[in-house]
Amino acid sequence: MTMGKIASLVKRHIWVWSLVLGFISFGGGFVASYYQQYRSTYLDGLRKNYEQFQESSQRIDDSLKLFSDVARGLKTKTPDEVEVLRNKLLRSVDSVRELSRRIDGTLSVAKNYERAVVRLADAADEITGPYDGKSLVEAVNEYYLAQQTVEAAVIKEDTKFLR
Hints:
Layout lengths: L2 H10 L1 H58 L7 H24 L4 H20 L7 H25 L5
Helix pairs in contact: 2-3, 2-5, 3-4, 4-5
Keywords: Membrane, Transmembrane, Transmembrane helix
């Protein structure tokens, strides 16, 4: 076909071409709108879970300040303080599990965080003063590294798709 024949064909059936292009535009707009709605709902849920994680991490930080005094020999721990820390750690693990449920491929991140939390709980249970504080310091360090890994996974997921 020559260009003249194509132009003639388009001119004769211009209303058909207009209709086809209209449907294509409508369909593209519908798909884009649906995707944006899905994505904004997904991001709202992700942010809600991340805020829960941050709140639980802040509560843990408050308890860790108390245990740092124990490790320096400034204070003695009580069984209630250990129990409070364990409960805060369990809530934190629950929030990380919710995050890993939302984010594909973060099961290893969640498992690593759980391991760090268990080690931290055990170290807090065993510490009596400065002489055995090394295990607590190492466990706190491992906990903070695992926490940063979770935060990095959430940030990566948040910026994963085009906005």
